[in-house]
């Protein structure tokens, strides 16, 4: 670790351009690789939520953000992107220490966050309305206007990048934002306050609150001055957030969990599948909503695939993320010991229910929330391990006999986030892509796409889309103005 980078002992929340925090009401931020407390974070209460939403709403009403010429917002977004990249090492180190992922992954997360500011900075000027012909006695036009205060409720798995995904398009379209940062990993998000100040956003544009979900999160989701809630997290919390917002007739974007499957056909290039498994399921120790958590392989290639996945899993070095600087073959700690125990519990139940643990499946002894990279063969797609999100480094392998069975297993969960197809037959790839449930289908490369491509779920993986042009449309609404001449 760069010795010049140190975390503040105490961090505050950021409301209307000023820092505030009660030293008597804090949460301890723990490095999951060591179990050590690395910082104290002030917890926001209901009054802080109210103040932040009110400040954002005052700014919205003033028109100082939403009413400015879009090129001005575009420039500020680009300045924020530069600022983030200039501070890449400090932010990445913070992410690794608070969340556990390898430093090389945290750097990629910072780069990914900056991309959202660049991309939506570019798009900020491109939204425009239209005119509708109503005959010679009328002039009619449709404008796009910002919605108002956007609430962003953020999970801990990519704490910095998940915020960028919704904050950048919200600001690009002129919406002041209140961000509820994750309790387990709140520190990297504080950089957005510095980025917003550096970029010149008016006070109240970006407000950052760390608080318990049941207190600050719930107060934010139900606040009557909020105009849109963007939630990323688990299904039960998403449902409760949507209920709370619905009480105020406020729309929600829900980005929830997944149990995404790669379908591997007999003609697939298994070396490519193995490379993708490395990133698909073992990146971020499997704590990725769109993880390749299931591989459904044709029975003729099952043994080969199990051998490949087992040697991949055993080749991964598991150690503190902060030591994993440049090599690309490691895995860090999970976010917390509690979460690691819940992952371990799912693997134990899978074994008890008749699944075969091919490799891994245990927590290494010693300090830190580590878990071995694990491969499980599930003989029955109805097992919990084949149905529910593990959110850890656990690949579930299933086999099939014909294409129809592969698709029915892939679509046979309550989720539908992403899917993958591995084949050299383009017609089979297209037919299968159309048949799979999910907002993004990857053919021959898991995670193909980028900030430019729309992303989101079907079924219990959520509703609405983020990323791409579609993601920007969440933050505007149309207003039709009809004039009688
Ligand atoms: P979580 O649902 O426990 O928490 C998410 C956020 O909601 C946190 O900030 C939390 O404090 C807050 N929260 C908790 N209770 C709340 C309440 N009653 N009202 C309002 N807010 C509340 O999820 P998590 O454990 O932090 O994240 C893991 C989950 O997130 C996984 O299921 C994962 O798949 C999902 N996820 C989805 C995406 C996606 O894009 N689809 C991306 C990342 C993570």
DSSP summary, beta strand count: 23
The neighbouring-strand order within the major sheet is 17-18-19-14-13-20-21
CATH class of the largest domain: Alpha Beta
- Number of helical runs? 15
* Multimerization state: single chain
Bound molecules: nicotinamide-adenine-dinucleotide
What is the number of domains? 2
As a percent range, the share of helical residues equals 25-40%
**Are there runs of 5+ residues with pLDDT below 50, and where?**
none
What is CATH's topology name of the largest domain? Aldehyde Dehydrogenase, Chain A, domain 1
The average pLDDT score comes to 97
Largest sheet: 7 strands, mixed
Shape: globular
Rg computed from alpha carbons, rounded to a whole number of angstroms: 23 Å
Q: What is the CATH architecture assignment of the largest domain?
A: 3-Layer(aba) Sandwich
Structural class comes to alpha/beta
CATH homologous superfamily of the largest domain?
Aldehyde Dehydrogenase, Chain A, domain 1
What's this, in brief?
The protein is α/β, with parallel strands linked by helices and 485 residues long. Helices cover 38% and strands 22% of the residues. The model has no long low-confidence stretch (mean pLDDT 97).
Q: What features would you describe in this structure?
A:
By secondary structure, this protein is α/β, with parallel strands linked by helices. It folds into 2 domains: 10-256 and 462-482, Aldehyde Dehydrogenase, Chain A, domain 1 (3-Layer(aba) Sandwich); 261-450, Aldehyde Dehydrogenase, Chain A, domain 2 (3-Layer(aba) Sandwich), CATH 3.40.309.10. Helices cover 38% and strands 22% of the residues. Strand 18 (374-377), helix 12 and strand 19 (394-400) form a beta-alpha-beta unit. Helix 2 (70-86) runs antiparallel to helix 4 (103-123), helix 2 crosses helix 6 (191-199) and helix 3 packs across helix 4 (103-123). The termini are far apart. The mean pLDDT is 97. The site of nicotinamide-adenine-dinucleotide has 30 residues, from helix 7 and helix 8. Nicotinamide-adenine-dinucleotide is lined by residues 153-157, 162, 180, 182-183, 213-214, 217-218, 221, 232-234, 237, 240-241, 255-258, 289, 389, 391, 417, 457, 462.
